[in-house]
Amino acid sequence: MVTSLAHLAMRLDPVQMSYAAGIEPDPWQARFLRSRSPRLLLNCSRQVGKSTTTATLSMHTAFYEPGSLILLLSPSQRQSQELFRKCLEVYRALDKAVSANAENALSLELDNGSRIISLPGKEGTIRGMSGVRLLVIDEASRVPDALYMSVRPMLAVSGGRLVLLSSPFGTRGFFYEAYKQRQSWDYYEIPATECPRISAEFLAEEQRNMGTFWYQQEYLCKFLDAQGAAFRAEDIDRIVQPELESWSFAPSASPEALRERYKTRPTELSA
Q1: What does the chain look like in DSSP terms, one character per residue?
Q2: What is the pLDDT of residues 219-244, one digit of tens each?
Q3: Which domains does the chain show, CATH number per domain?
């Protein structure tokens, strides 16, 4: 049974909830749980604990922000259900410290009015929901842009938090765009080499079997251009610079007229 003192400790510090659930967080996980940022971006290797940590944050929000709506979105119902299952594992490890009105394989409703709902990445099943306190998008690099754009307005009135977590999947989509603007997020990048539970021997075997491209994408958090792409994304970004001034020259304009219009030195207009 969770005592009143334990509740107070967990309310003040989400890391204490992780410990109480039997999960010893890595330093980055503790920093993530204690973050107050409204926008969190996790670019992480597979199997470093990003889903478990996000599940702990979801339960903390449900426990200590009564009436909260927490949405868990993924590309498929199965993936959303897997993240929700981790929420239930934390909930049960805490002896269901807040009683539930309803609990099933897809959702949890607590006595304090908070709800955690897992949904597939289909726009039609999500539109119409509002008042979202925490919006979690798992495997974000594989979620369609249209879905992402349709769910962001759910946070407009509630002032809710947004968490994107994923490993990379090429240089495309909203997750990659968020990565390029990561200074605007509370950003976490955790390659497998920084996870104490993944051995160097396992990673060496994976690199041999997967090849460099897939190994770097799945384990080293690298956003890579699709194999066989004609141009690299960074080269396209370098070419397309909207801040550059565009000049339009009339074909019949004389060098003297051009010099007067653009204040250009004669040598710069020589043939």
Answers
A1: ---HHHHHHHHH-HHHHHHHTT----HHHHHHHH---SEEEEEE-TTSSHHHHHHHHHHHHHHHSTT-EEEEEESSHHHHHHHHHHHHHHHHHTT-SS-EEEE-SSEEEETTS-EEEEEES-GGGTTT---EEEEEEETGGGS-HHHHHHHGGGGTTT--EEEEEE---SS-HHHHHHHHTGGGSEEEEE-GGG-TTS-HHHHHHHHHHH-HHHHHHHHS----PPTT-SS-HHHHHHH--TTSPP----TT--HHHHHHHHT--GGGG--
A2: 999 999 965 444 445 554 555 455 55
A3: 4-227 (3.40.50.300)
